[in-house]
Structures are given as structure tokens and as C-alpha cells.
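Morning!

As promised:
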Amino acid sequence: MIRTAADRAFFPTKNLLEEVGDMMILTGKTVVSALRPPFPYGGEFVSQFMFVLRLVWFPLIVSTVAFGYGAPGLQAANFLVLFGALDRLGGFFVLASIREFAPFVTAIVVAGVAGTAITADLGARKIREELDALQVLGVDPVKNLVVPRFLALMLVTGLFDIYALLFGIFGGILATLVNGAPLGPFWATFFTNASTTDLWGSVLKCTMFGAIIAIVCCYKGMTASGGAEGVGRAVNQAVVIALLGVFAFNYVFTQTLLATHPEITVIR
Amino acid sequence: MRAVAAPRSWLESAGDVGMFCGRVVGQVATGRVLRFTGETLRQAGILILSSALVICGLVFIIGLQCGIEGAYFTRAQGTPAYAGVFSAWCDLRELVPYAFGYMMAAKVGTGLVAEIGSMRITDEIDAMEVMGIPSIAFLCATRLVAAWIVLPFVYISAVGAGFFASYLAVVVQIGEVSSGGFFLIFWMFQNPPDLLFSVIKGMAMATAIVLIGLYYGYHASGGPVGVGTATAKSMVVNIVLVHLIGMIGTQVFWGANPRAPIGG
């Protein structure tokens, strides 16, 4: 009785730890085989890059404009209007958009749209035994399938951060206009508060999000099993783990950036 | 011709989704789902056991995030004692609904597609119809009702997890405001109607996510690979819907009235 209870608590934890370890090993393998010649993955890299770009651009526009207009835009504008200080909304958007929501909305959309597609694709190849066939032919699946996806997703997520940032600020502009205020003060406080540290922090953070999503989704796709339900379940687990990983990393990164660069938190 | 094809197919599938949602909600509204109360309760149990913890976990992480951003922002303004304002608004009004929506879409939405989609492609749903069990009522309406029964409570526990995390981040971790000072401001800037609005926002997201998940699962085709593709597609639609519902909710509930105890 006690034994079964202990087993029930123990096995999920053990499986979880094993999976995290496997993902770390996959990360290591991916980085090593990305750097070690030969480099056969150029074509696949470009096609994956275009694939992610094509899937993500539209959901990302809708998501960032909606998020920027609703959460930081309307709520902060409400608060600032009470003090007659709506011009400060621009300064607030440096914190809200660049530091926080542009990277994480990008990560959510990339994980939900491109990550799921990658898991579904690799999972389909796995259960059709194409991956095993590749190995028999002497083609390394990590080098030819995971590495291009890893690099493409890192690059495209980092670049999409800039794009999300622009559309997020567009949401802020909408909120300013809805409140009937001119845009000049918005831009003035925005540019006096914006700093280079914030921008590189944002892009670096987003690039790392891309790496996390790529590894989790490739791992889950390549280990899909169990017939009909297997691929669907792999996609489900991949997106849950990717979101948890992204947000946990976000907390640690933001905390470290804020604590080690006190100058970016000064309001000017 | 090609330029018109994409918007046209979007419109067609939006119409399909609408018709399907109408059928599911119709089964609930006419009370036909009551024939399967046992199945409904079983689904509610599955929802609690498999999803409640992970939803609260994500909201907890977001609460920590709101806490540190609020603490650093109010410190920069020279008013660290007011970190509670930022946390109260950030948690309750915006980020808890979003985080709840994200995790619902990721865990419950895609889970429904994977489960019902595999039933569809293994012809279990057709077999069910042949045996005289109405599949929409038995598979879809029960899950929708289960979500409505369970999720308000899960949502409120998630709000609690978010509040607790913000408290940890602001008071225990950053430590520039006392516990009493934090809570004074924190509770002053929110009241029960705010919680109600927040729950409505979360439930609107949850309903949309469950219906979309059911639609993509019920209409899956093309073998095991098709289930994977349908799961991925449902996630795209859900992400966009979560953001749109979040924005519309903010506009409707707080757009014209900040509901803050400041000024007159």
C-alpha cells in the first residue's frame, strides 16, 4: 500500500527528470553538431526560416496589437489620466513593451504556431519510421533536422521580437489616440526612457526563448510514440513544457537584468 | 483568383466553427446533455486532476513577474510602498486571464484535439453513432459542461496563486515594503466586481478554447499525422482568440472607468 503510493509519487518525478535530462543532452548534441563540419543543413535552414515566417507573421500582429492596446495601453492610460499625466504612457511602454510583453507574446505565438507545427511534422516522420530510415541510410537526424530548426527558430524569434515591439507600441499609440491625447508627448517620454540595454536584453531574451521552444518541440516530436493518439499527445506536451520553460526562464532573466543594470529602471 | 481564395476559405471555416459551436451549445441548452451526467462528472474530474495544477503553476510564475516589475517600477518612481497597485492591476485584470488562457489553450485545448481527433480517425465516433449514442452530446457537450462546472474554481485558485506569487516577489524577495503596507494598497486597488469581471474574461477564453478544441478534434482527418496537424492548427486559432478576448474584455470592463480609489 505504502509502496504503491510511493511509486505513484516517484515515477512521474523520475520521468520528468529523465525528460529534462534528455532535452539537455539533445541541446548539447545540437550545439556540437551545429558547429562541427560538414554543414549540410543550409537549404533546410532557409526553408524552415521561411516556413516559420509564413506561419507566424499574422497571428503575431493580431496578438501584439491586442495585447499592447488592452493590458499596458488602456489600463496604464486609465491610471495616468487620473493624474493628468498621459504623456508618461510612452515611458511606461519601454517597461511594458520592450522589457516584458514583446518577448513573451512572441514566444507564446512562436511556440503555439511554429513549435506545434514542428512537433507535428517531426512526430509524423517518427511514427512513419522515416527517422529510423534516415539513420539506416547514415543520415544523422540531429544534424539534418534538429540543427536547422534550432538555428532558424532562434534567429526568427529574435527578429520577430523587433516586429512584436513595433506592433505593441502601435497598440499603445491606439490607446493614446482613444484617450484623445496628442502623440508628441508619447514619443518624447518613450525615447527619453528607452535605453540600449533594454533593447539588447529584449532581443537576447527572445532569442533564448526561440532556443527553448526549438529544443522542446524537436525533442517531443522525435520521441512521439503510440500510434494514432501519439502525435497529438506529443504536440500537447510540447507546447505545455515550452510555455512553462519560457516563463520560468523569463522570470530568471528579467530578474537578473533588472538587478544587474539598475540604470535602466531609472525614470527620466 | 488566388488573392480571394485565402480569405474565402477562412470565412468558410469560421462559418463551420460557428455551426459546430451552435450544435454543441444547443445540446447543452436543450438539456440533452443531462442524460450523460455521469460522463460530465468524469470529465470534470479529469480536468481537475490533469490541468488545475499546471494552470496554477503558470499563473504563479506570471505573478512573480508582475511582482518584480511592479517593485522595480514603483521604486524608480520613488514610491516603493505602492508596488501593490501595479501587482493588483497586473495580476487580477490582465495577466492572470492571459496566463490562464495560454495554459488552457496549451493543455486543455490541444489535449481535447488529440483525444477526440484520435477517436475520429479510429472510427470510434462513427461506431458510437451506429450504436445510437449521439456523439456530439456524449463527447462534446459533456466536456463543455464539465469545463463550465470546474473552471471558475480553477480560475479563482489561479488568481490566488498569482497573488501569493506577487506577495513573495515584492515583500519577501525585493523587500522594500512591509507586508502590511503591501496588502493595504493591494486590497485598496481592487474590489469584488473586479474579480467578477476577471472571472468573466477567463471564462469567455475558456469557453472559446474548449469549443475550438472540440471542433478541430471532431473534424480531424488524414490519419495519425492529421491529428497532429489539427492539434497545431487549433493552437493558432486559440492564441489569436485569447488575445482578442483579453483586449475586448479590458475595453468593456475597464475601458471607460478605471475603477481606482483616486480623485473624484
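The CA atoms of residues 27 and 215 of chain A lie 6 Å apart.

Hope this helps with the figure draft.
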